[in-house]
């Protein structure tokens, strides 16, 4: 196939590369992307919400470990299980504070104390007990 002189001059110009999808179908898309973009990872557009603004459609083998983790955590089942685990953790935490509170002497024994007040009072009480044992 022979090129005319103006076609030959245009072939050296980067804008003369085929840009329609049919002519790009045979090229290596990853190689094309890596030469044009410094970061070849997929870019999410539109935040994943709204009409036409979804995440990049990638096969599971192409997803990064972080993206797989994000998708797994986005399921309702995972969120429900995580909320249950967090609720159990907070209840155990509050129970430990309640037990510590029972061991600390205060003037009204049923006085409500914040968690930081319980910790500070425990520190003072332990210091006092150490002082009593040393004397």
Low-confidence residue ranges: 9-53
Strand content: under 5%
Radius of gyration: 33 Å
Order of helices and strands: HHHHHH
Indicate the overall shape: elongated
- Number of helical runs? 6
Q: Give the distance, in angstroms, between the N- and C-terminal Cα atoms.
A: 105 Å
Itemize the secondary structure elements and their pairings.
Elements: H1 5-11, H2 21-24, H3 29-36, H4 65-73, H5 76-103, H6 115-134
Descriptors for this entry?
single chain; 135 residues; mainly alpha; 6 helices; 56% helix
Q: How is this structure best described in words?
A:
With 135 residues, this protein is an all-alpha fold. Helix content is 56%, strand content 0%. It contains six helices and no strands. The radius of gyration is 33 Å and the shape is elongated.
Entry summary:
The chain is built from six helices and no strands. With 135 residues, it is an all-alpha fold.
């Amino acid at each position: 196939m022979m090129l005319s002189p103006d076609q030959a001059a245009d072939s050296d110009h980067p804008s003369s590369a085929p840009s329609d999808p049919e002519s790009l179908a045979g090229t290596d898309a990853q190689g094309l992307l890596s030469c044009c973009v410094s970061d070849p990872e997929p870019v999410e557009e539109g935040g994943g919400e709204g009409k036409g603004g979804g995440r990049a459609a990638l096969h599971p083998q192409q997803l990064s470990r972080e993206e797989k983790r994000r998708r797994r955590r986005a399921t309702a089942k995972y969120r429900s299980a995580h909320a249950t685990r967090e609720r159990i953790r907070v209840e155990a935490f509050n129970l430990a504070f309640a037990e510590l509170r029972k061991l600390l002497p205060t003037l009204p024994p049923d006085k409500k104390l914040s968690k930081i007040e319980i910790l500070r009072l425990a520190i003072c009480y332990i210091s006092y007990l150490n002082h009593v044992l040393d004397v």
